[in-house]
Amino acid sequence: MIKSARTFSYLFGYLPIAAANLAKFKKRKTGMSQEEYSKLIHSEPQKWASGIMKRTGSQVEVSGLDYLPEGPVLFVSNHEGNFDIPVLLSSIPKPFGFISKEEVRKFPIIPSYMEEMNCVFLDRTDRRSAFKSITDTIGKLHEGHSILIFPEGTRSKGQGLKEFKAGFMRIAKEAGVPVVPIAIEGTSRIMENNNNQIRPARVKVQVLEPLTPQELDAAGVKAAQLVRSRIEQALADVQ
């Protein structure tokens, strides 16, 4: 109960500071390169996410950061729990946006930051929104921004890897960027498996070797399964 209160107090209590910093960052945008501004914007969510993870008392082990290539990439990760995003924001030094539920727009301040991070919003009840999210993501990648996607669509809550929705491969192929698989294990033990009470957990994040556009093209219709298999094997190795 205490860790839950501390975590959520920090989560929402930090928002006024984040809003003030965002205003400062926007003023500095003129004259900065896209890469410089992306790093500046990423620094605040990274700090916020690190503070959240510290208050959960969890230990996060990260491997494979040497695999991170230059330029835009499509990060493809399994989706175990609600703490996947804070864990990845605090662990991955490369700036990225992500595909998020449309409902997040109802929160204060957070959507403004997400827009600057080049996140894409998706309304799962609207097929046109789903199509637009794909084209928007391709556009972000073409502009040079990296994007994270959870192709399972919903949290597994530690109950095994779900099937991947195939749309992410269309994004990767049309954008012509590398796919960087990520295997994340242990986030469901922070909250989902504790009746939504926050408890410390050991979390392991594995950044796996990228798949180049050429490798994805060569895999053809099996490309999505290839990405999923690499993540599945990495998760199995943790057990």
Automatic annotation (TrEMBL):
Spell out the CDD domains in the cross-references: LPLAT_AGPAT-like
This enzyme's EC code(s): 2.3.1.51
The Gene Ontology biological process terms listed for this entry are:
phosphatidic acid biosynthetic process
Enzymatic reactions: a 1-acyl-sn-glycero-3-phosphate + an acyl-CoA = a 1,2-diacyl-sn-glycero-3-phosphate + CoA
Q: Which GO terms describe its cellular component?
A: membrane
Tell me which SMART domains the record gives. PlsC
Going by the entry's taxonomy, the superkingdom of the source organism is recorded as: Bacteria
**Keyword set, alphabetical order:** Acyltransferase, Lipid biosynthesis, Lipid metabolism, Phospholipid biosynthesis, Phospholipid metabolism, Transferase
InterPro entries, per the entry = AGP_acyltrans (IPR004552), Plipid/glycerol_acylTrfase (IPR002123)
Please report the stretch or stretches of sequence annotated as the Phospholipid/glycerol acyltransferase domain.
Answer: 73-187
Pfam families, per the entry: Acyltransferase
Instruction: Give the family from UniProt.
Output: Belongs to the 1-acyl-sn-glycerol-3-phosphate acyltransferase family.
Tell what the record comments on domains: The HXXXXD motif is essential for acyltransferase activity and may constitute the binding site for the phosphate moiety of the glycerol-3-phosphate.
- From the Swiss-Prot or TrEMBL record, give the protein name: 1-acyl-sn-glycerol-3-phosphate acyltransferase
